[in-house]
Amino acid sequence: MIALNRTKQRSRDADRTGELTLPSAPNRYSAIIAKVFEKHYSSEADSFEFARDDLTLIATELGVKLPKNVGDLIYSFRYRNELPGTILRTARNGLEWVIEGAARARYRFRLVKLNRIVPRDELVTIKVPDATPQIIGAYALGDEQALLAKVRYNRLVDVFLGITAYSLQNHLRSTVTGVGQIEIDEIYVGIDRHGRQFVVPVQAKGGSDKHCMVQTQQDVAFCKQVFKDLLCRPVSAQFMTNGRIAMFELSVVDGAIRVVDEKHYQLVAASTISRDDLKSYSVHTK
Questions:
Q1: C-alpha distance from residue 237 to each of 41, 116, 210, 240, 270 (Å)
Q2: Contact status, residue 128 vs residue 154, Cβ threshold 8 Å
Q3: Fewer Cβ atoms within 10 Å of its own Cβ: the N or the C terminal residue of the chain?
Q4: Residues 6+ away with beta carbon under 8 Å from 82
Q5: Nearest Cα to 226, choosing from 189, 178, 176?
Q6: In degrees, to the nearest 5, what angle opens at C-alpha 212 toward C-alphas 210 and 215?
Q7: DSSP H or E run through 273
Q8: How far apart are CA 41 and CA 284, in angstroms?
Q9: Where is pLDDT greater, at 17 or 48?
Q10: Are 38 and 86 in contact (CB under 8 A)?
Q11: Are 7 and 86 in contact (CB under 8 A)?
């Protein structure tokens, strides 16, 4: 989901003519996506589609170099970067634009309710003995990879959901009917004491990446298409300050992300977990 921050504030302070003009010095991603939006946008529309070929045509029209990985342009505005101010200021109060997959090589701009998933500062941090092999910690590449490794080696999916779960595949790429190509950071399958079986798509958020309703919707759609007999429990993991890890179980209700559960974990040496820590955990049963 695309956060509204300083860029939107600047757009509010800019002229309010309503005309869709490019920013004065946009980078190539912003220039291309702004022109795509301008080409298809109308003030009456809550959604509209565009094709991947539009990106190529508009890059040529603007005289800017198209990125080798065209999909990265879409990905960047879904999870990392803010949409240009010319797009943000067209959203009505309480709504924001997101980019969804519409089909193979097609995308959809859609207005949705503002929806933020951020860790709650007031939650207790639970200390967990760190089982991450030191060599993994030394060579993990990037926040996302380091986070996925820590979740996997410390069985945080099991701890968080209360099931026995096994990593099935990471960086799973597939195609979902009516959506197009999707990617899931890691997917688990699991079982509980009653014999119920689960599929758990996990998204890892490191650095400046943001939780996104679109991604959760796509994960759920994929699981319904491929794992029809398993219960789907989408999970998102995010690094916090001081090396803490926030774990969210998510659901999509009425077009918005809802948090089913949230826990914060800190991986520490077993010797640093005190009796007082264990006593405090014993009173928390949820």
A1: 34, 14, 11, 10, 22
A2: yes
A3: C
A4: 2, 3, 4, 5, 7, 8, 88
A5: 176
A6: 125
A7: none
A8: 50
A9: 48
A10: yes
A11: no
pLDDT of 207 above 60 = yes
Residue tagged 């774990």 (tokens) = 247
Determine contact, residues 245/267, Cβ cutoff 8 Å.
yes
How would DSSP label each residue in 144-155? HHHHHHHHHHTT
Give me 79's structure tokens: 């999870």
Q: Which amino acid is at 165?
A: A
d(CA 71, CA 202): 21
Q: What are phi and psi of 20, to 5 degrees?
A: -95, 95
> Hey, what amino acid is at 161?
L
> What does the alpha-carbon distance between residue 174 and residue 46 come to, in Å, rounded to a whole number?
28
> Token pair for residue 232?
């789907």
Q: Where are the domains of the chain?
A: 6-113, 125-282
Spell out the long-range contacts of 122-125 with Cβ–Cβ below 8 A and sequence spacing 24 or more.
Answer: 123/262, 123/263, 123/264, 124/264, 124/280, 124/284, 125/244, 125/264, 125/265, 125/266
Side chain identity, residue 115: N
- Amino acid code (one letter) for 146: A
Q: What residues are paired with 236 via a beta bridge?
A: 203, 248
Whose tokens are 């094709």? That residue is 51
pTM given for the model: 0.74
What digits encode the pLDDT tens for the residues 146-205? 999 999 999 999 999 999 999 999 989 888 888 878 889 999 999 999 999 999 999 998
Where is 107: in which H helix or E strand? strand 106-113
The DSSP element (H or E) to which 241 belongs, if any, is none
Residue 205 CB coordination number (10 Å): 22
